[in-house]
Amino acid sequence: TNRTFTMIKPDATSKGHTGAILDQIIKAGFTVKAMKWTKLSTEKAGEFYAVHKERPFYGELVDFMSSGPIVAAILEKENAVADFRKLIGATNPAQAEEGTIRKNFAASVGENAVHGSDSDENAEIEGNFFFNFFERY
Ligand code: ATP
């Protein structure tokens, strides 16, 4: 068993997809270990995505991720990181497999409904970014 970290992004929360996305995540076998509804400041969004600072879409990404509410969560499942990335589908929803969360709910590569950590190490770092010791179990 291990953990991953996810965010339901502002496009999905604002379109009312939060419940359906959480339902799909839980039905796929993930257990929620911590969860919060919050909003990132541009400063916090910039910090979270600092690894992408040199990418051409960084400014757009930071503006988008601070444009509305998000849901942050720590999820547990065997093989969590890889299985969750499979569940969400390709970064670009046009290339995402049928039945994936991005295929079901995302509009574009920028506004792609959900985030999923890309490694166990980043899952830990990203979970700690949002949740202190008393907010996860
Ligand atoms: P995430 O880290 O959100 O799970 P990912 O690992 O699938 O996404 P990355 O290549 O790490 O994708 O990009 C991080 C995020 O940056 C993407 O989810 C998307 O929101 C945004 N992004 C990536 N490529 C583009 C692009 N060409 N234009 C606009 N935004 C982009």
TrEMBL record:
Signal peptide residue numbers: none
Keyword Aminoacyl-tRNA synthetase attributed: no
Binding of ATP, residues: 9, 57, 85, 91, 102, 112
InterPro entries referenced in this protein's UniProt entry, alphabetically: NDK-like_dom, NDK-like_dom_sf, Nucleoside_diP_kinase
The enzyme's E.C. designation: 2.7.4.6
GO MF terms, alphabetically ordered: ATP binding; metal ion binding; nucleoside diphosphate kinase activity
Chief localisation class: cytoplasm
Subcellular location: Cytoplasm
GO CC, any one term: cytoplasm
Cofactor (UniProt): Mg(2+)
This protein's record includes keyword Transcription: no
Annotated SUPFAM superfamilies: Nucleoside diphosphate kinase, NDK
Active site: 115
Protein family membership: Belongs to the NDK family.
Subunit structure comment from the entry: Homotetramer.
Protein name as it appears in the record: Nucleoside diphosphate kinase
Gene from which this protein is expressed: ndk
